[in-house]
Design goal:
Strands 6-5-8-9 form a four-stranded antiparallel beta sheet, with no helix packed on it. Strands 12-32-31-30 form a four-stranded antiparallel beta sheet, with no helix packed on it. The chain is mainly beta.
Length: 400
């Protein structure tokens, strides 16, 4: 039988270890919530907020109030207040934002940096006519009409993959060659909502072409009499997709978004943010949900004006004005980011959803009607030429 003194020592040791574990757990919990140990002014634990400094690409320098503080990815404790955050990396445009740091709340930078010198690579070599991007951003359909390569003229499909970009990795494939009575350069193309089919509408005939079938089974039948029915069905399918995505929105926001035409409503990759073109004036309520602790503190607007683009964040219940449709042309979400791409004059520009970090990513001779995103958001696609007088082709412009 163990002596009483030994039992007391074991019990004391067990209690001591238990207390240490509990105390350490509480300390870690406090530190994770933004508190830090302080011996100033008689306070042992001081409440702070957190900045989670992340960036794409990584290993960028983080400046807080113009002082180099750390590198991404890192977490920084700061007393509550307003701070100017700047994230810089050689070869990329700087990212900056004013952040309101609150105690026990994490501010996430999630900075997407864009190249100062975009890299251009050709995707086609024989010219491109009437290119159209599929709704899922996975493929482009276009026609070729090159006098120097008449046997190669026809209807083509270019699959967009995340493989390296040399032409032998992303070769266009011919869907149908030109034939007597069919010159594909005279046709306009429209994708189905599921990206599996296209409508080819020409001056004298229209064709519905399945892209997920073998080339040998793609017989052409003139579907001109059914054209209005097919288009109506596709419009209904697109409307249903939008309705399903906005079904959980507040009724007033749902009404504002649903009145916009389908081509003027776009969802971010996470589906949490909605880009829309307002069709009429409206006034949003000041608040639809209880604001989350980490709600974006950038200036928003609840006053809706017709013919202006807005972005509504359904998680934060914030609404940001992007601009008038006359100055913000053909905006779309850059995949895997919180940025949109749009055209302004002769520039391709990007801006964050909260209208910060408005930057030019490309400015040159390009076709303003053809600006598409690459599926992973690392590039944009347009029609341009390598030098004045050269044949215009599809080019991929690496911007991230």
């Amino acid at each position: 039988m163990a002596p009483p003194t030994s039992n007391k020592k074991s019990l004391s040791l067990l209690l001591g270890v238990s207390f240490l574990i509990i105390a350490t757990t509480y300390l870690i919990s406090f530190l994770a919530r933004g508190y830090k140990i302080s011996f100033n002014q008689g306070s042992f634990v001081k409440a702070t907020g957190l900045i989670s400094a992340t960036s794409t690409p990584k290993s960028a320098s983080v400046y807080i109030n113009n002082r180099l503080t750390t590198a991404t990815d890192d977490t920084i404790n700061l007393p509550p207040g307003n701070y100017q955050i700047k994230i810089i990396k050689d070869g990329y445009l700087p990212w900056q934002k004013t952040a309101l740091i609150k105690k026990e709340v994490v501010f996430q930078t999630d900075a997407h940096l864009f190249r100062t010198a975009p890299d251009l690579k050709p995707l086609t070599l024989t010219g491109t006519i009437n290119p159209v991007l599929s709704p899922d951003n996975s493929k482009i359909v276009y026609s070729v009409a090159s006098a120097s390569a008449s046997r190669d003229n026809g209807l083509y499909q270019l699959d967009l993959t995340n493989r390296p970009l040399p032409l032998n990795k992303n070769l266009p494939k011919q869907i149908h060659p030109d034939s007597p009575g069919i010159n594909w350069a005279n046709f306009n193309f429209e994708f189905s909502p599921d990206s599996r089919s296209i409508l080819a509408v020409g001056p004298n005939a229209s064709y519905l072409i399945r892209l997920d079938t073998s080339p040998n089974s793609r017989d052409l039948y003139d579907i001109t009499p059914r054209l209005p029915i097919i288009k109506k069905e596709w419009q209904q399918q697109t409307s249903e997709l939008i309705k399903n995505k906005i079904k959980d929105l507040p009724d007033q926001i749902k009404e504002v978004v649903s009145t916009a035409s389908a081509q003027n409503v776009a969802f971010s990759s996470s589906d949490s943010k909605i880009l829309y073109l307002a069709q009429k004036d409206n006034q949003l309520l000041d608040q639809y949900i209880t604001p989350p602790p980490a709600q974006n503190n950038q200036n928003q607007t609840r006053q809706i004006q017709a013919d202006h683009y807005y972005i509504y964040d359904q998680k934060d219940d914030t609404n940001f004005l992007v601009g008038h449709q006359d100055t913000v042309t053909d905006p779309f979400w850059l995949p895997n980011s919180n940025n949109i791409i749009y055209i302004e004059g002769n520039q391709i520009k990007t801006i964050e959803y909260d209208t910060t970090n408005n930057q030019t990513v490309f400015a040159d001779n390009f076709d303003k009607n053809v600006v598409f995103p690459w599926p992973d958001g690392s590039r944009i696609i347009t029609i341009t030429s390598a030098y004045p007088g050269a044949q215009e082709n599809l080019y991929a412009i690496t911007i991230r």
